[in-house]
Structures are given as structure tokens and as C-alpha cells.
């Protein structure tokens, strides 16, 4: 099994009236429940929409500097994501399609790199 990230940028959502948003709750939650029942669900959630509510941590100078707001100014930013644990790309894209239908906007799928093995031996 491999873990996959299904995600969207906030700008892919588009502008919709309040009554449209109300129609997305049930189908979105139904997909999450279907993932849980299938045993592939790891985590899903939407992020706060205002990037000014973000914080950044930067340790490239040798010490950690925490600042308000996003690390870089950008026109697109992450809106939300789902992590699933499935056997292959085909299954991951099938779930991404279900998430796209449930939410009502496009999704991107990427596989996580394998976690490196810790070094062994004495030193």
C-alpha cells in the first residue's frame, strides 16, 4: 500500500452562492464515509481560506524564524487535502474522482515518497 495526497488549490473552487455550498456538504461527507468504510482513509480537511491566517517557519539561516502569513506571496494556495492509503495509482485516481464529484471542483493526486529507513549501526 502507498499513501497518496488528493488536494486542491483554493483558486480551483471558484465563486459560488451560499445555497450552492450547502449542496456540497452531503456528497463530500459521503465520500469521506465511503473511504473510511473501504479502509483507505487517513485524513481529510479543508484549510482556512485566508493565507494571512498562516504562519511560516524558516530555519535556513541556522535559527528558526517564525513569521505571520505565508512563506511566499503567491496567487494560488492550498485549499484542502485528503490522504489515502491505497495499493496503486489507479485506485488513488478513482478516489480523487469521487472527491472531485463530492466537492464540485478539480483535485490533483500525488503519491508520497517512501519514508526513508533510519540509519543503522554504531557510530
Q: Write down the CATH class.
A: Alpha Beta
**CATH topology term:** Alpha-Beta Plaits
The quaternary organization reads as single chain
Rg result = 18 Å
* Portion in beta strands: 25-35%
**Major sheet size, sense and barrel closure:** 4 strands, antiparallel
CATH architecture: 2-Layer Sandwich
Sequence of secondary-structure elements: EHHEEEEHE
InterPro entries: Dimeric_a/b-barrel, YCII
Family: Belongs to the YciI family.
Protein name: YCII-related domain-containing protein
Summarize the structure.
The protein is α+β, with helices and mostly antiparallel strands and 123 residues long.
Description:
- Helices cover 28% and strands 28% of the residues.
- Helix 2 (25-38) runs antiparallel to helix 3.
- Strand 3 (55-58) and strand 4 form a beta hairpin.
- It contains three helices and six strands.
- It has helices at 18-22, 25-38, 89-103; strands at 2-9, 41-46, 55-58, 65-68, 78-86, 108-111.
- With 123 residues, the protein is an alpha+beta fold.
- The strands form two sheets. The protein has a four-stranded antiparallel sheet, with helices on one face. Strands 3-4 form a two-stranded antiparallel ribbon.
- It has a single domain (2-111), classed as Dimeric alpha+beta barrel (Alpha-Beta Plaits), CATH 3.30.70.1060.
- InterPro entries: Dimeric_a/b-barrel, YCII.
- Pfam families: YCII.
- Belongs to the YciI family.
- It comes from Microlunatus soli.
- Residues 27-97 form the YCII-related domain.
